[in-house]
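Objective 1.3, modelling of assemblies. Example input:
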Amino acid sequence: MEVRAEILIAILASGLVTLLPRVLPLMVLSRFELPKAVADWLKHVPVAVMAALVAQSLFIAGGKPVTGPTPEMAAALAAFLVAVRTRSLLGTVVAGVACTMALRHLF
Amino acid sequence: MNGHIGCAKERPDEKSLFLEGVKACLPTLFGYFSIGFAAGIVEKTAGLSLLEIALLCLLLYAGSAQFILAGMVQTAFSAIAVTATIFFVNLRHLLFSAALAPYFRRTKPAESFAIGALLTDESFGVASDHAARHGAINEKWMHGLNLTAYLGWFAANMAGASIGQYIESPTAWGMDFALPAMFIGLLVMQMQSRGELSADIAVAVVAAVSAVFFSLAFSSSVGVILATVTAATFGLGVERWKSARKS
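Predicted structure (tokens):
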């Protein structure tokens, strides 16, 4: 159960460079009224970032484009349908994981 | 369901707001657990000690960054290279923090710090959905959401690191898909509650296409930031164009 110095330094340094972008806008930007254009722009960030993360996980593997249909794409479709129908986050995750597992065992 | 939250005339007490935040986090815990469990296994097999893994979860607290650090432990390890890589990977939090800032204008600096320090993709997704539905986010609610996710992530990593070796490959169980599935759920719910479906679909498509393009051209961490900036700018343009046509 030891902590090596070089690992500790890496954890502290990477923790710090992660912490700053997390806290600075919240502490600084909340002090004054944002221009309307900036506030309107920021309202699009949640949809944009979630869509970007989904696309990355489905269409890129190991820095290369994914060619052809994969079990994950079918599972994503199942998860999407469950999300639209139920609005349940847990249901969506369970459907996606179950579908991935089933398809990986089948093929 | 909890439509009374955030209503000014009858303010629920702080404890129940905190518990509402805990409750809002529960549906994401399955996702946190499976990814955190996998992270724990990867960190342990990379040669990190339990104490190092605990520090990693508590001080870094970022899924993809922890995988990267663990991966680099096995190869030539350089604290500077790890830190520089993780800085770019986690720079997207800047956008999350900025997007939530307007909801915490009356929040004390120490509380804003605490809220920002525990921001993740998932807590940002859940909080944005809450904001779209209620028009406001209470600080105590946000702490409940954040702390539950933080402790859940820590517990899952420790569980994976201690008992992961007895479990055969977690990918066979489809657990690695928990994270993309969670993003899909958060995306759909966000779009349903904002009530601007056609604009949101356009933004999502632009984000997806540019995420693939920028990730291949640069790297996936730069890709997600450039895609978000491109799609949000596109969304603002569409919004302005629509309102100009109306007037």
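The longest helix of chain B spans residues 14-45.
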